[in-house]
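Hello,

Our lab assistant flagged a job as stuck in the queue for most of the afternoon. It eventually completed. Since we weren't sure the result was trustworthy after the delay, we are filing this so someone can double-check. Below is the sequence as submitted and the structure that was eventually returned. Let us know if re-running is recommended.
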Amino acid sequence: MPSERLFRPLFLIATAFTLFMALLPKPPALPIDRFGDKFEHMLAFATLALLARLSFRAERGWRLLEHLSFFGALIEVFQAIPALHRDCDFRDWVADTIAAGAVLLAARALRPLAGESPVSDG
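-- returned structure --
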């Protein structure tokens, strides 16, 4: 398995890109737009969760979920700024948190298959 040092810059780039796209007053059209806003949120946070898990392997999953969920909530708070012309929707935060949680649970279940010892998240 590649080292955490490889994945951390990718995680930081993905986090910055997510924040940048979330705060653009008029984000560019993307091919995935046809699947809807919630799909975009879930794809972004599933990706962030996977990269976070690969970047911080020793960190407990619930702790990663806590930080990713907070990041999603922070994005929604920023989107409430009138000058951005974006919509603040708590359901987007819920979608972010569910997607991140699902990926982190899957990663936890797959740890033994990757030759890593399971870590207690309790």
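-- support follow-up --
The delay was a queue issue, not a problem with the job. The result is valid. Residues 14 and 37 are 18 Å apart (CA to CA). The first helix runs from residue 4 to 23.
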